[in-house]
Amino acid sequence: MNQYPNPHPGDPWQQPSGQNPGWGPPPPDPYTGGALEPYPGGYQPVTPAPVPEETPLTTIGDIAITQNLVITPAGRFPINGTVWTVTDMSRTETTTPAWAIVVAILVFWWTCLLGLLFLLVKEHKTTGHIQVTVQGHDHYHATSIPVSHPTMARQINEQVNYARSLAA
Questions:
Q1: What angle do CA 15, 19, 25 make, to 5 degrees?
Q2: Distances from the Cα of 161 to the Cαs of 23, 53, 120, 168, in angstroms?
Q3: What angle do CA 142, 146, 148 make, to 5 degrees?
Q4: Nearest residue to 18 via CA among 30, 28, 27, 8
């Protein structure tokens, strides 16, 4: 029993050869005997080219930089001709801490206006991250570095500028 309807001349599903569509016998084996033939030399392992060992000069997140290479988790590539980008997505908020407000209210009753000086106490809090990207030689890698202090942004920018000087 065939799963296809009996084709009539002019039916759109009829094959050009006039046969019903379906699976046929496999094509003949072009190799003699159909058995596996051993390779004349046997198994020869390919030894990878030796990687020159260089000391990392600096690391930016998960990117390591040597004198001649950029090393990322995705691979190694030459530092010459790379493009470095820094995007600062951190922010610093300045607020009056809760303890200063409580002390200002409690001390205000005994010292009159002197307790209001505690409201001048400010607290700086930095949150966010800095994204560093490197691209060149058909490679692209981006890393995010969490920031907890405003000076970290300056330090990361200095490291990227050093990498840019090596890439020039």
A1: 110
A2: 64, 24, 38, 11
A3: 155
A4: 8
Residue 129: phi and psi, rounded to 5, are: -150, 165
**105-119: string of b/e by CB count within 10 Å (b at 16+)?**
eeeeeeeeeebeebe
pLDDT digits (tens, 9 = 90+) for 98-146: 998 888 888 877 777 778 888 889 999 999 999 999 998 888 999 999 9
Global model pTM greater than 0.70: no
Report the C-alpha dihedral over residues 63, 64, 68, 74, rounded to 10 degrees: -50
Radius of gyration of the chain (CA): 35
From residue 64, give the alpha-carbon distance in Å to each of 29, 70, 90, 130.
52, 6, 23, 16
Helices (H), the chain: 98-111, 150-167
Nearest CA-CA partner of 152 in 62, 70, 92: 92
The answer to whether 56 and 71 have CB atoms below 8 angstroms apart is yes
For residue 5 the two structure tokens come to 């309807």
* CA–CA–CA angle 131, 134, 140 (5° rounding): 105
* Residues 61/132, Cβ–Cβ less than 8 Å: yes
Q: Which amino acid is at 85?
A: T
